[in-house]
Design brief:
The complex is a heterotrimer of chains A (309), B (234) and C (288). With 309 residues, chain A is mainly alpha-helical. Chain A folds into 2 domains: 20-231, no CATH class; 232-309, no CATH class. Chain A is 73% helix and 1% strand. Chain A is built from 14 helices and 2 strands. In chain A, strands 1-2 form a two-stranded antiparallel ribbon. Chain B has a single domain, classed as Rossmann fold (3-Layer(aba) Sandwich), CATH 3.40.50.300. Chain B has a 6-stranded mixed sheet, sandwiched between helices. Chain B has a 4-stranded antiparallel sheet with strand order 2-1-4-5, with helices on one face. Chain C is mostly helical and 288 residues long. Chain C has a single domain (2-276), classed as ABC transporter involved in vitamin B12 uptake, BtuC (Orthogonal Bundle). Chain C has a two-stranded antiparallel ribbon with strand order 1-2. In chain C, a hairpin with a 2-residue loop joins strand 1 (129-132) and strand 2 (135-138). The chains are: A mainly alpha (309), B alpha/beta (234), C mainly alpha (288). Chains in contact: A-B, A-C, B-C. At the A-C interface, helix 5, helix 11 and helix 13 of A face helix 4, helix 8 and helix 10 of C.
Chain lengths: 309, 234, 288
């Protein structure tokens, strides 16, 4: 039953471009990008305890990677978008020797500083168009009429791909090791978990997913600027969406994204109040619902009573 | 003075003490005996408000249920914790003075504590972390006394000390016992030492009281068996 | 002589940076958590003073004092009502909580004051200078520097020579044990957060006197404060002063040699310190 429903929902989502208008398409695409980003952020943060406040750096890197691969190597955008994810993952790998010396709070803020460094370097680079940014050279790879549907399908593929990847990882042996590490590092070491290798893997995977989602987002925008691509506002949304939805839960990003877009669209006429409402929701969630909206289901599930150890 | 009735202590999902009941009168010393993990420290923490507890704890008839550790300290509960827990960046004198923060007054002041432990007067300005284990233990006991408590909880005061030093600390406690009207609970792994320093004893096994009685003339073999859980009904 | 000029200016800017770091250092030292809203506390405090001075017409000194008191109250209240509830062995919930608070404060400021540049007018003091032969230094930056040093000294004195300071140090050493000394840890945390917020607000006010701010200026100040305490060495108050001066020097030198670099070299200094001397300039070896 569950599978049939999921298959039907997926089919409906794939078919959306054939009956939805442009505004709906843009909104749907945006929602999917946020879900993909939140899944990617949730992987190291929610399941691994490796919390980053610098993922906007990876969004910008992914976006710029797409634009450079398309312009300088002439790659077709459909190739360049996944490639942008890979490039972002590799760049993330390159900074881990410094970043992985940091733990917890220092890692979180250290990531933010790294994202700032990348932003400033991009703004100073003529090759990347400096502060004024650059247009997407590969815009002509796709016929104009198909641009928006293509962007939408890419966003859908990224969001579902990220979800399936996290789901698969968490059911695997690797997922167990990751959770063991988050819950008790010393105990995890004692059963042979190599902490840095596990953390490195989820971090690089997360960066690659984030980079690809960034590339998808800036593919549809056709223009990229450093101020937009490296905006801390991305992280604000990702973090709030994940906290409200439920950290370390697969359905968290979906539920959190739903609330985010309801608040944003509902309060569209009231300036920045939706951000205040979102922040307040996140703070309230931490106080009264630490498992996020996704944990609401558990509260009514009496079959799984807690065992005393 | 202190009355404990149906007390259970727990940390999260883990229950460390079940249904303990006992009383300690003013001037009396109760020894808590038991192996590692028997629940001795948890029982003290439950009395202090440092872990969650169910059941009644009354001090001079006043119910302490739901009070914070700070409130209980102000009512007259003082603890010399396991591991001594010096405030590492404070000097010896500051460590003692902070004990008086409860605002309770009585015979215990800086000068009476340093009379009991003269070495602390000598080292007043040293950082407490630079002291030896025995000296730190004296600071911990002195810090608890500075609160002029009604109930003094002493957790493993001889643990990790050289026999000579442990002896010195126990002698100071003996002096306390005869001179003050404080109700004392002493947690101690060494059965012989615990019995010698107490009026009554209480033996814990896996969180439950399995044996109790007067210390004078107590059957050490029976306590030993209770300690290891041999031949007693749990 | 340009070298002397750069060094003097760097040190004076560093004094302001150190002040941004001071409050955060206090929080780190006592509560072992990061306050992501530290930058918003600073900017919010400055906006309180601006509101009092411009909209209510209060004299500058009164506006500043009022803003500092209100900042203390806000920091105290937020810690008592919200942050204390998520404090524990894991620092992450507190980090996320303060992250939420930072976004709420920032956007409230936008709604209340708009996104324009604002500043606190200090009159002719802003442009007054002292000629020292070949170099000249501004009077206001000098005052700022002296105030920063004085606050470091005052905080040091308070921590080491008052009862409240002793209790705060004890809480930093062993927060689980202070309850047994008859003190409510939650109250001490709230007082420390209040003091930290007031220190941040003072730094923000001085920033608004020196130049201008917008509601979005908080993030950059948070990063500066964070860099100051990591470069200086965590948990050490004097380390923060050293870190602030080092960061100020780097920023001023970089601005002279590479005018479009912004905070780039400060960020790079942080990474260099993390690689070469993770315990910071003044810090002892410590796990982080």
């Amino acid at each position: 039953m569950m599978r049939i429903l999921l298959a039907l929902a997926t089919a409906a989502l794939i078919a959306l471009p054939f009956f939805a208008d442009r505004g709906t398409m843009f909104l749907a695409m945006e929602i999917l990008v946020i879900i993909a980003l939140a899944q990617a952020w949730n992987l190291p943060a929610g399941y691994g305890g490796l919390l980053s406040l610098g993922h906007h750096g990876f969004i910008g890197l992914g976006g710029y990677a797409l634009y450079v691969l398309s312009r300088d190597l002439g790659l077709h955008v459909l190739v360049a978008i996944p490639a942008a994810g890979i490039v972002t993952g590799l760049l993330a790998l390159a900074i881990t020797p410094v970043l992985f010396r940091l733990r917890a709070v220092y890692f979180a803020v250290g990531m933010w500083v790294v994202a700032e460094i990348i932003r400033i370097l991009v703004m100073r680079s003529d090759w990347l168009g400096g502060a004024s940014g650059m247009p997407l050279a590969g815009a002509r790879d796709i016929p104009r009429a198909w641009m928006l549907p293509t962007a939408y399908w890419l966003a859908l593929a990224t969001a579902l791909g990220a979800t399936v990847l996290v789901w698969g990882l968490m059911r695997s042996d690797f997922g167990l090791r990751l959770k063991a590490l988050r819950d008790d590092e010393i105990a995890a070491r004692s059963i042979g978990v190599a902490p840095n290798r596990v953390r490195l893997t989820v971090f690089v995977l997360s960066a690659a997913m984030t980079g690809m989602a960034g590339a998808v987002s800036y593919f549809s925008a056709l223009f990229i600027t450093p101020l937009g691509a490296f905006d801390i506002g991305w992280v604000v949304i990702i973090v709030f969406v994940t906290i409200i939805g439920g950290m370390g839960r697969l359905s968290g990003p979906f539920l959190g994204a739903a609330l985010y877009f309801i608040l944003r669209e509902g309060l569209a006429d009231f300036g920045n109040w939706y951000l205040i409402a979102l922040g307040t929701s996140a703070v309230l969630a931490m106080l009264v619902l630490p498992g996020g909206l996704a944990s609401l289901g558990d509260r009514f599930n009496f079959s799984k009573t807690k065992e005393q150890s | 003075m202190l009355k404990v009735d149906g007390l259970s202590a727990s940390y999260g999902d883990y229950t460390a003490v079940f249904d303990a009941r006992f009383e300690v009168a003013a001037g009396e010393t109760l020894a808590l005996i038991g192996a590692n993990g028997a629940g001795k420290t948890s029982l003290l923490h439950a009395i202090c408000g440092l872990c969650s507890a169910q059941g009644r704890i009354t001090l001079d008839g006043a119910d302490m249920h739901g009070l914070t550790a700070a409130k209980r300290a102000q009512l007259g509960v003082a603890l010399s914790p396991e591991g001594r827990r010096m405030f590492a960046s404070l000097s010896v004198q500051e460590n003692l003075e902070i004990g008086a923060n409860t605002g309770r007054t009585g015979p215990w002041t800086l000068s009476s504590v340093t009379k009991l432990f003269p070495i602390l007067g000598e080292f007043a300005d040293r950082p407490a972390r630079l002291l030896s284990g025995g000296q730190q233990q004296m600071v911990a006991i002195g810090r608890a006394l500075m609160a002029n408590p009604k109930v003094l909880l002493l957790d493993e005061v001889s643990l990790g000390l050289a026999p000579v030093v442990a002896q010195e600390v126990m002698q100071a406690l003996a002096k306390l016992r005869t001179e003050s009207g404080i109700a004392t609970i002493l947690v101690e792994q060494d059965i012989r030492r615990a019995i010698a320093a107490s009026d009554r004893f209480l033996c814990l096994l896996e969180g439950r009281v399995v044996l109790q009685g007067a210390s004078k003339g107590a059957d050490l073999d029976a306590i030993g068996r209770a300690y290891f859980g041999e031949g007693t009904a749990a | 002589m340009i070298v002397v000029d750069v060094i003097l200016n760097g040190l004076m800017l560093g004094g302001l940076y150190a002040l941004f770091g001071l409050g955060l250092s206090l929080i780190f030292g006592v509560m072992k958590i990061a306050n992501i809203a530290h930058g918003e506390f600073a900017i919010g405090g400055a906006f309180l003073a601006i509101a009092a001075a411009i909209f209510l017409g209060a004299p500058l000194w009164l506006a500043v004092i009022g803003a500092l008191i209100l900042s203390f109250v806000i920091g105290f209240g937020l810690q008592l009502v919200l942050v204390n509830r998520v404090m524990g062995d894991d620092p992450v919930p507190a980090l996320l909580m303060t992250f939420g608070l930072s976004i709420i404060i920032q956007n409230l400021l936008v709604e209340l004051f708009g996104a324009d540049n604002r500043s606190l007018d200090i009159g002719p003091l802003a442009t007054a200078g002292i000629d020292l032969g070949p170099v000249s230094i501004g009077v206001f930056p000098l005052i700022l520097f002296v105030v920063a040093i004085a606050l470091f000294a005052a905080l040091h004195w308070m921590l080491h020579h008052t009862k409240a300071g002793r209790n705060i140090r004890a809480t930093s050493d062993d927060p689980d044990m202070v309850g047994m000394m008859g003190m409510e840890r939650a109250h001490i945390f709230a007082i420390v957060m209040g003091v930290s917020a007031a220190l941040a607000a003072l730094a923000g006010i001085m920033l608004a006197m020196r130049g201008s701010i917008t509601p979005f200026s908080g993030a950059e100040r948070l990063l500066i404060a964070f860099e100051v305490i990591v470069i200086g060495g965590l948990g050490s108050i004097w380390g923060s002063l050293l870190g602030g001066l080092a960061l100020g020097l780097v920023h001023v030198i970089a601005l002279r040699l590479d005018p479009s670099s912004g905070p780039l070299y400060g960020h790079l200094l942080l990474l260099a310190i993390l690689l070469l001397r993770p315990e910071g300039l003044a810090g002892r070896k410590a796990q982080r």
